Amino acid sequence: MYNIIINNINDKYDYNELIKIFLKPAEYRLFTKNEYEGPQDDDDVVIEFNNEEFDDKNQIKRELYRGLSSITKSAPPWGILTGVRPVKLTRELFEKYGSREKVSDKLTDFYLLSEEKANLLMDIFEYQNEILGAADENSTGLYIGIPFCPTRCLYCSFTSNQQGNEEIEKYLDALIDEIEFAGEAMKHSGKYIESVYIGGGTPTTLNEKQLDLLLNTVEKAFDLSKVKEFTVEAGRPDTITAEKLKVISGHGIKRISINPQTMKDETLKIIGRSHSVDDIRNAFKTASDTDSFIINADIIAGLPGETPKDFENTLNEIISLNPPNITVHTLAVKKASRLIENDADYHYRQAETVKKMLLLSKKAMRDAGYRPYYLYRQKHMAGAMENVGYCKDDTPCIYNIRIMDENQSILSLGAGAISKKYYPKENRLERVPNVSNYQIYIERIQEMKERKNKKFFKEV
To answer: Which of 156, 227, 235, 379 is the most buried (most CB within 10 A)?
Structure first.
């Protein structure tokens, strides 16, 4: 057991997040200097950092990174960064230093990123800047959540529910109430909607009538005249029908997602998906027969039992289906998921396999004409890697870019939705969350509206 002591700190959180990239939680204990009372076991190894008692957090983290790299003989490519939004940091560095060369030096020398990750971040920032630029401070993103799924995946703890039509109807009634309230409040806000994203869960768990009602409500409640994109996350292939896609197309919506995760039937069964590879192919065909949709397809590196060869097969099959957007996720094992309950160290053991998979995806995406356009990271990711969204023909998802940049207000409606009010002069966000449980959301819908009115629509 490693006993890690860090001098001259109060809050251990950021340091603990960095240590967990190198060591499993069962392999170490973290102490401040004042906390440490000596070894607890005969085989404890004591390591002390920041003996010079620096105050700068990043300086301490660099010392910690280098020390743990020496001990574990590893050099995680994201350096001392543990946050979700490294592209946001890259944007801030470009605003401060101006040139790619200076930003690269800062990312590699100060934050200790590998050259490959630094170049990836800079490529993404420069592409975003080229095709989109910064958000207008009067613009807002609109998110609407449908917290229902046909099944719960092995790795997921997302607030999604497997419920019948009666429960969905009750939820939809409450959601429509919130939409109508928010639409009226937006009219008096001086703001406009730039993008709309209906996500979940799986929005296409709604039947055609429910989906049409939801979209009609959104169109009536909000002024959508300045909307640049409207996305419906269809997601699960087994929920996608020609009738539902016709409803979506009939409302002029051009962006949808079809999320295979893998093109291996055995894996789909293991992770709890209720569809097959053939269902995925059929969903793509149904979509292409219905309209010229801009489709995003999600795939995941690091799924249980899969080899780099399996992942390469998934890549090749998805690329052959020709979706304009492909998002390559690294498996992130959520705390309350069945996978972490059964195998707490899964994301550590998969590290090397996932690194090989991501190298395959990088080459395959570029060879097929896709460019990386957004990136984010999550806790408990296999190998502490990243998720990368790729697009071709300049078809990035604006909503995805904006929510990761955190320089735009996001109005979020539905159970588990978290609105974010952006204050540009202070460059800060204030979170305005809804309750996550959909039944409590229904019961407390009036409170959710009052909370938004006070904290999102009124100036704080």
So the answer is: 235
Residue from 295, 21, 298 nearest 155 by CA? 298
Torsion sign across C-alpha atoms 122, 128, 129, 135: negative
pLDDT (mean) for 279-297: 97
pLDDT-based confidence at 61, cuts 50/70/90? very high
| CB 283 within 8 Å of CB 313 | no
Which three-class secondary structure state does DSSP give residue 409? strand
Residue 94 corresponds to which tokens in the numbers above?
């470009």
Please tell me whether residue 169 adopts helix, strand or coil conformation.
helix
Residue (of 382, 443, 452, 459) closest to 185 by Cα position? 452
pLDDT of residue 162: 61
Structure tokens at 72: 């574990």
**Does the global pTM surpass 0.90?**
yes
The Cα-based distances of 304 to 25, 160, 333, 342, 346 in angstroms read 21, 22, 11, 12, 9
Q: Choose between 110 and 54: higher pLDDT.
A: 110
Beta bridge partners of 357: none
Mean pLDDT of the chain: 94
31 neighbors 5 (Cβ within 8 angstroms): yes
Amino acid (one-letter) located at 405? D
- pLDDT class of 460 with cuts at 50, 70, 90: very low
Could you please report the per-residue DSSP string of 156-168?
---S-B---HHHH
Q: Which residue type does 158 have?
A: F
Contact between 251 and 215 (Cβ < 8 Å):
yes
Q: Which residues pair with 261 in a beta bridge?
A: 299
Residue percentage of the chain with pLDDT more than 70: 98
The pair of three-digit structure tokens given for residue 84, joined into one six-digit string: 């979700």
Cα separation, 228 vs 130, in Å, equals 16
At 344 the pLDDT is 82
To which residue do tokens 């992942």 refer? 311
Q: Is the pLDDT of residue 160 over 70?
A: no
Predicted pLDDT at 372? 99
Domain spans, the chain: 2-72, 86-132, 139-423
Average pLDDT (395-410) is: 97
22, 133, 69, 79: which is closest to 408 by C-alpha? 133
* CATH architecture entry for 139-423: Alpha-Beta Barrel (3.20)
Rounded (10°) CA dihedral 307, 309, 312, 313: -110
